[in-house]
Write a structure and sequence with these properties.
This is Lipase modulator. With about 150 residues, the chain is mostly helical. Helices cover about 80% and strands about 0% of the residues. The protein has two domains: about 100 residues, no CATH class; about 45 residues. Helix 1 packs antiparallel against helix 2, helix 2 packs antiparallel against helix 3 and helix 3 runs antiparallel to helix 4. It is elongated and about 70 Å long.
């Protein structure tokens, strides 16, 4: 069982997490060359895990910001690098969102849902009383959820 690919991947991931924690705890005390060598190794691991989809964008950003802070002494340079990193991830998020929206626009079920959504919102907004003593918002939420379930079954 310990020799399975899944077990090996798990141990590698545990090793990565341990090395990252150790690096950040010791970074200030490490000689510059050792700090740089270990930071580069962590950077490669972060790149690999991110590329494999094993780290979320949020986890990756936090790790990369911590690496910047651990390896760059000048606060002004740190701020520049963190801002560039944030801009990169914002751009990637916008690109993925635009791609998702294009994909949804081509989906007939999504178009059907959006048409029905408008009708349901108009109908609920015109109502004065709601079943079961629900608030308008709760009733609308339930109706829209039911419609999503109907469309995507």
């Amino acid at each position: 069982m310990l020799a399975t690919p899944q077990a090996q991947q798990y141990r590698q991931r545990q090793r990565f997490q341990h090395e990252a924690r150790q690096f950040f705890a010791q970074a200030e005390r490490l000689p510059a060359s050792e700090r740089e060598r270990r930071a580069q190794a962590l950077q490669r691991d972060i790149d690999a895990y991110e590329g494999a989809g094993e780290l979320s964008a949020g986890e990756t950003v936090l790790l990369r910001v911590a690496l910047i802070r651990a390896t760059v002494a000048d606060p002004a340079r740190q701020a520049e690098l963190v801002e560039a990193l944030a801009a990169r991830y914002r751009g990637e998020a916008e690109r993925r969102n635009a791609q998702w929206l294009r994909q949804q626009a081509q989906d007939p079920r999504f178009r059907d849902y959006k048409r029905r959504e408008q009708e349901i919102v108009a109908e609920v907004m015109a109502m004065r009383a709601f079943p079961g003593g629900l608030s308008r918002d709760e009733y609308l939420r339930q109706r829209l959820q039911a419609e999503r379930e109907r469309v995507y079954r």
